[in-house]
Design a protein that fits this description.
Radius of gyration: 21 Å
CATH topology: TIM Barrel
Structural class: alpha/beta
Bound molecules: 6-O-phosphono-beta-D-glucopyranose
Helix content: 25-40%
Low-confidence stretches: none
Oligomer: single chain
CATH class: Alpha Beta
Mean pLDDT: 97
Length: 472
């Protein structure tokens, strides 16, 4: 692995920060996504959060209170030897309603303190500008990303943070898992559907608005600081054909394109032919601004970041068992074991996915999420021996190293997800843990928030120190 490889960890404000009423922060999407049976309908945009029962629990409001614990958490990251830390900004902490012309100074100061803390340990900040996060006011008043006006609000926010953190931050990611908006439109992009409307058309319009905003953000970032490296982010995982039947192979190609579509635009700068045809066939006419095509073309991303949890699989006949626990519809792959939440485990799939992306785009890649969500049970001394997590990570790191060292994929870094335990995005549970650091809190929000180093903490420290070579 290259000597300057960025080993680190990743979190996002919506799932760890908490402090929802601190520092003049405005209400955000995450504050109204409940725990329990109503979570999915709300995240899918089929249930209005304003109709939720009064006793609903909202785990994101407090989360693991990184807001109050960031110094302690960063000290632990430093102890593991992190070279970078990926986190996201809460938009409504900086622009409480999203409509202000001037940023909330307190919000900027909080992130400045956090970034300074990182820099003091020599940890490179990797900042996601929008991770399943939008001021609630923009959702209720403008319909969120379905509305072009939100592009301007987003750029106003980008402008503020690109200027304020100039000289301190180098890596920016415009939208987390941009393709998630096709699957969980409210969680991914604040989209709620009206009865009877053409949902696919709404989703593609929101996608176009985000893609355009992302390209404008690249332009703005480079104008403010030519050193800035701006990336897109894909919820990745190659789609395998269930068999070598040509129909299955064709179906897998189509499924891959549903995801590649976003990166094709962000990395190559234009709508691919298959996407234009699809929109035509579905009778979808996008509302476009006069400069959109040019902006998309001229301001492509510097790197491509991705999350990888598993590969996907498809059968053309739609028969057979479905893969469990996944918002991306997938057939069950009989060759793979699954996690406790039914997510397939496929380390070689990471190597396959990295190669597919690098072949297609020839831009540097950055793995900004990967990991195993699992239940951890502290023993009577409070220790957590998470060998299952170590096994998962070891296999994936080796696959990543093969992609870099054997196949020549240009890789910037690796930041496993939820390096400190946090709230699960899909389930809202605390018990679905990814971290090297245990946080004493349960699904109902009870606990002390105490941080405990797991066995994987010490293991990952050795991996970083040896630049991964100790695993071979
Ligand atoms: C990705 C997201 O989808 O996967 C994260 O970017 C999320 O926000 C992660 O937490 C893992 O998913 P989950 O549902 O296990 O939290």
């Amino acid at each position: 692995m290259r000597k300057d490889f960025l080993w680190g960890g990743a979190t996002a404000a919506n799932q760890c920060e908490g402090g929802w009423q601190e520092g003049k922060r405005g209400m955000a999407l995450v504050d109204v996504i409940p725990y329990g049976e109503n979570r999915m309908p709300v995240m899918e945009g089929r249930m209005d959060y304003r109709e939720l029962p009064a006793d609903s629990i909202y785990p994101g409001r407090e989360a693991i209170d990184l807001y109050g614990h960031y110094k302690e958490d960063i000290a632990l990251f430093a102890e593991m030897g992190f070279r970078c830390y990926r986190f996201s900004l809460s938009w409504s902490r900086i622009f409480p309603t999203g409509e202000e012309t001037k940023p909330n100074e307190e919000g900027l100061k909080f992130y400045e303190a956090l970034i300074d803390e990182l820099l003091q340990y020599g940890i490179e900040p990797v900042v996601t500008i929008c991770h399943f996060d939008i001021p609630l006011n923009l959702v209720d008043k403008y319909g969120s990303w379905r509305n072009r006006k939100v592009i301007d609000f987003y750029l106003n926010y980008c402008d503020a943070v690109f200027r304020y953190f100039k000289g301190k931050v180098r890596y920016w990611i415009t939208f987390n898992e941009i393709n998630m908006l096709m699957h969980l439109p409210f969680m991914g992009a604040g989209i709620r559907f009206e009865q009877g409307e053409n949902e696919l058309a709404v989703k593609y319009q929101a996608a176009h608005n985000e893609l355009t905003a992302s390209a404008y953000a690249v332009k703005l970032a480079h104008e403010i600081n030519p050193e800035y490296q701006v990336g897109c982010m894909l919820a990745a995982g190659s789609v395998y054909p269930y068999s070598c039947r040509p129909e299955d192979v064709w179906e897998s190609m189509k499924r891959d394109r549903e995801n590649y579509f976003f990166i094709d635009v962000q990395a190559r700068g234009e709508y691919p032919a298959y996407a234009k045809k699809l929109l035509e066939q579905k009778g979808i006419q996008l509302e476009m601004g006069p400069w959109d095509t040019r902006i998309l073309k001229e301001h492509t991303v510097d790197f491509i970041s991705l999350s990888y949890y598993n590969s996907r699989c498809v059968r053309a006949d739609g028969q057979g068992e479905a893969s469990g626990g996944n918002v991306f519809a997938s057939a069950k792959n009989p060759y793979l074991e699954c996690s406790q939440w039914g997510w397939p485990i496929d380390p070689l799939g990471l190597r396959i996915t990295l190669n597919a992306l690098y072949d297609r785009y020839q831009k540097p890649l950055f793995i900004v999420e990967n990991g195993l969500g699992a239940r951890d049970e502290p023993d009577e001394n409070g220790r957590i021996a998470d060998d299952y997590r170590i096994d998962y990570l070891k296999a994936h790191i080796l696959a990543m190293m093969d992609a870099a060292d054997e196949d020549g994929v240009d890789l910037i870094g690796y930041t496993p997800w939820g390096c400190v335990d946090l709230i699960s995005a899909t389930t809202g549970e605390m018990s679905k843990r990814y971290g090297f650091i245990y946080v004493d809190k349960d699904d109902k929000g009870n606990g002390t928030w105490k941080r405990v180093r797991k066995k994987s903490f010490f293991w990952y420290r050795e991996v970083i120190e040896a630049n991964g070579e100790n695993l071979r």
